[in-house]
Structures are given as C-alpha cells and as structure tokens.
Amino acid sequence: MKKFICFQILIVFLLLSCAQQNGKTMIDQDSVNLFPVENDGKWGYIDRRGRKIISPKYEGALRFSDGRALVKSDGKWGYISRREVFAVKPEFIEAHEFSEGLAHVKIGDNYGYISKSGDFVIEPRFDAASYFSEDLAGVKINGWWGYIDKNGYMVIPPNFGEAYSFSAGLALVVIDGKGGYIDRSGSITIGPIYDWAEGFSEGLACVKWDGKYVYIDQTGKVIIDPSVDEAKHFSEEFAAITKGGKQGFIDKSGKIVIEPVYQKAGDFSEGLASVLVDGKWGYIDKTGQIEIEPQFKTAIKFDGGLALVEIDDKNWGYIDRKGIFVWKSKK
Q: Which of 129, 193, 197, 311 could form a disulfide with 179 if both were Cys (CB 3.0 to 4.6 A apart)?
C-alpha cells in the first residue's frame, strides 16, 4: 500500500478504461492495446504478448483512453501519447482519463476539462465532475448535479442529488433519494420511484422496485422479473444474479442459463466471466464451463485480450484467455 498505485486502485482505473477497439481496422492489435506494468517502483507498458513497449520510468501509469494515457512524473499527473511523448505535461494533482476527447482535471478546489493538447476547454469551476458520454457530462455545483455540454454550458440544470452517464439517450439520476431517468433535454422520462437502480446497458436497466429486482425498458415497462435475491446489469447478453446466496447468470428472457453455484460472479467480457469458487477466482465461458481454473485472489474482466489478476497480497499480473501469464510482478 506504500506504492503510489496499489493493486485495488489499478483495478478501478482499468475498469474505467475506454480503450476497446471495434475490430474494423487493419492496425496490429498488439500495438493498440497497451497495459501498465510496474518494475522496481516504476511504471511502463507492455503489449498483449507481454513485450515491453514503454520502459518503466513513471511513478504511476493507467490504461490508454482516446489515445492518451495518464502517467505520474515528479509527483504530478500528465498525459502521454502512444509514441511516449508528453501530450500534456505533468502538472495536475488529480486527473482522469479522456472520454469523447475531453478529460476532467482538478485545479485548486475545482474541476474543469482539458483537450488532448492540454488546453482548458471548460474552465475549472465545478465541485465535482464526471466523464463525457453522448456529448454530456455530469457536474456538481453548490451541492447539486446537472449536465454540461462540450462548450461548458449547463444544458440540464443542477437539480439532482446524483447524476450518472448517458446511455442510449437516458441517464440515471437521483431525486429525493430515489432513482429515475432523464433524457438529453433534462425531462424525466421514467419517474424516480426506485430504491436502487443502474444505468441502461444493452437496452435494459436493472432496478429495485417494490422490494424486488427487475429489468425495465426505456419506457419504464418491466421486461424481466427474474424472481431472484439480487441482480446486475447485462453484459454480452448475460446478467449476474443472486439466488439462495449463490450467483449465476440469466439471459434476456429471464431464464437462468448458468446455475447459481458461485460465491460471486463478474461480468462477461470477451466471452468469459470471472467467478469465485472456494475462495479462489477463475473464469467460465457462456456454457458455464471452467475455462481458467480458480486460483487467483482477485480476477478482473478481460479487456483487450488480457485480464488483470492478483496472485497474492504482493504479486499480480496479466493472463491470456488460456490462463497463461504474459507478465508477472516481481516481488
């Protein structure tokens, strides 16, 4: 925990990564997906084959997003390009990944947004800020959340206790402690009646209503009532559910397709999902077959062909889809 980025912090930023590619380009994917690694307290990058691409030299490093990666040098955050050139010099105490061409950073007590060249496009004036999605970003001012556009105009007034990213034209907001959904004009399309809710994913949102977990469509109509103890969002057509204290998966008909036999289960990504069995994490495929034997302390979803796993309290690394390590920490 003494190092700048502990394993748990690295997990959070990797999950926020926007570096997924659409597969329609002729670019060598090994050169596109770069993964942060640490050696003797310094951070650099490897490709998915484990080859060193950027030598370890930074105090911290996160995944590439929108062609930029956050790195820490001399105690400050900046952004490098894939050519290992500082596109934005390290001058921020707090900074975040680029999304839709902009990144929110903190100056003093306020947040603003910079371009990929490091110029302020939206001057720091917000108490808190989030990523742009569908050309809008949630910002907090005077204790309330609203949404700005890429010119910094407050297009949806700050009237919400919480405000989340837009997906398929709708965003989850919290009003008087209840979850509901607004459209891009700020109009409430699904009233705030839910005790718990997630954003829309693959056309459906998981909500807790009248004491049970259900899935609604963009009109608020209940589409799936799976009769389970807990539920989560859909990912690759499957959603993790909890029944009888164990976790499994349902499909979009609400049918249990992988029986709830796991202590915990993560999202499907690139055809595999992490599962906890007898205190160890491994990976299953969409038939429920074990693809990578449970053996890890922590296992994160696959992203760009590799998955980040924690071996023990000190050691971590990246594995490929066969469970073979392409890189391990050296402790």
A: 197
Helices and strands per DSSP (H, E), number in the chain = 2, 35
Token pair belonging to 259: 């029986």
From residue 294, alpha-carbon distances to 13, 171, 209 in Å are 24, 36, 35
Whole-angstrom Cα distance, residue 142 to residue 318? 42
DSSP-based three-state secondary structure for 319: strand
The rounded percent of the chain whose pLDDT value lies above 70 is 90
pLDDT tens sequence across 292-324: 999 999 999 999 999 999 999 999 999 999 999
The closest alpha carbon to 198, from 222, 174, 219, belongs to 174
CATH number of 132-225: 2.40.10
Q: Model pTM?
A: 0.88
CB 257 within 8 A of CB 250: yes
| Residues 6+ positions from 46 with CB-CB distance below 8 Å | 34, 35, 37, 52, 53, 318, 326, 327
Cα-based distances in Å from 273 to 189, 282, 287, 322: 33, 8, 11, 13
Per-domain boundaries in the chain: 1-19+27-98, 132-225, 230-320
Q: How confident is the model over 57-108, as pLDDT tens digits?
A: 999 999 999 999 999 999 999 999 988 889 999 999 999 999 999 999 999 9
